Amino acid sequence: MPMALPRELSAEEKAEFRAKGFQRFELWLPDLRDPTVREQALAEANRMAFADEEDDVMEWIDSLQKDMWDHEPGEGGQ
Prior knowledge:
Layout: H1 11-19, H2 35-49, H3 55-65
């Protein structure tokens, strides 16, 4: 069953919300009903979930920056 869009508020309803200190806010989210979007979201979630298992990536990053700070003032190098 497709979801319907929410109805627009009347001018009176909008005024009532503003009087209570609310403001209108529009938020766009990925449409998970779209199989392509759903597949991409799942792939990204899996990458995040298993990121800690990517030890070789962290070792590579560590090897690139191992002596990056050695020549900075206030660090061990000077």
